[in-house]
Write a structure and sequence with these properties.
single chain; mainly beta; Jelly Rolls; 17 strands
């Protein structure tokens, strides 16, 4: 029967018309007809797939940094828990033998044969998250927005990792854990008391959680789920703090638009795990 015929029957309002409409649509399944009394076309066929709930777009995760709202990409592991694929030494070669993988951990076990560990990829805007544990008096760090000002050696911003209680630098606020090393101090976390100083030279105890958020010149440091530092590379506060730091003569310090991310070997054993990245994009 034609659509025009059904339109006439519907307008007539008769019981027979309603019965016929019911029969046409079926009693157990979904109808492929849409009734729109306000439309000049009373019935129109609709593909069942066009109303599938799965067609709705997925929500985009966002965050705010430096007063801007940015989109957060999917989380991706930079350490696969099995080998050192995706990582290199300071010169682009194979990682030093002091870096080993055991029990799903990325471990610096032999500093004498270590050297820094760098991602093969370069990153510009991102959330870099990681967990670590260390032993007594350990000093390490994560470096980012790095460059080679003299063609060798990587210099840049450093998220400080160390046993503050047993390291001399622990007495200096801007060199304590999660600070931007020698530039800006991190604030104390509410959970700090939950992480007592290690008593063994080997990495032990609970893992701590670090996070670095970078979008253009805006940067944040997070520790154990709390934001402990936020700054902007190039603003007045940055210029003043840099002028009082060991980097005061390095004109381009912290200005690299993209770079590898570096895990520092600093003469002490340390364990890393859950080393992950989410890239950011402006909205």
């Amino acid at each position: 029967m034609s659509v025009r015929a059904f339109s006439f029957l519907f307008r007539s309002g008769s019981f027979a018309s309603l019965a016929l409409l019911t029969a046409f649509c079926g009693c157990g399944g979904e109808s492929n007809l849409v009734v729109d009394p306000d439309s000049s076309t009373t019935f129109s066929e609709v593909a069942s797939s066009s109303v599938s709930p799965s067609a709705a777009p997925a929500a985009v995760e966002t965050l705010e940094i430096g007063g801007r709202r940015v989109a957060v990409g999917p989380k991706r592991a930079l350490f696969n828990g099995e080998n050192l694929d995706g990582w290199t030494n300071e010169t682009g070669g194979a990682p030093g033998s002091g870096w080993q993988v055991a029990d799903g951990l990325l471990r610096m076990v032999d500093p004498a044969n270590g050297g820094d560990l760098l991602t093969k990829e370069r990153f510009a805007n991102y959330v870099f998250s990681f967990e670590w544990r260390f032993g007594r008096a350990c000093n390490s760090g994560v470096k980012y927005k790095i460059e080679q000002p003299n063609g060798k050696g990587w210099v840049g911003l450093e998220y400080q990792i160390q046993d503050d209680a047993n390291v001399e630098d622990g007495k200096i606020a801007k060199r304590r854990v999660a600070s931007l090393f020698d530039v800006f101090p991190a604030s104390e976390t509410k959970s700090a008391a939950s992480y007592p100083a290690p008593t063994d030279d080997a990495p032990n105890g609970e893992f701590r959680k670090g996070k670095i958020v970078v979008f253009e010149n805006s940067v944040e440091h997070w520790l154990d789920g709390e934001r402990v530092l936020a700054f902007t590379v190039g603003d007045d506060a940055w210029a003043a703090a840099k002028a009082e730091s060991k980097y005061k003569k390095q004109a381009t310090f912290g200005t690299a638009a993209s770079s590898p991310i570096l895990l520092q070997e600093h003469d002490y054993p340390i364990d890393f795990r859950n080393v992950e990245i989410q890239e950011l994009k402006g909205l």
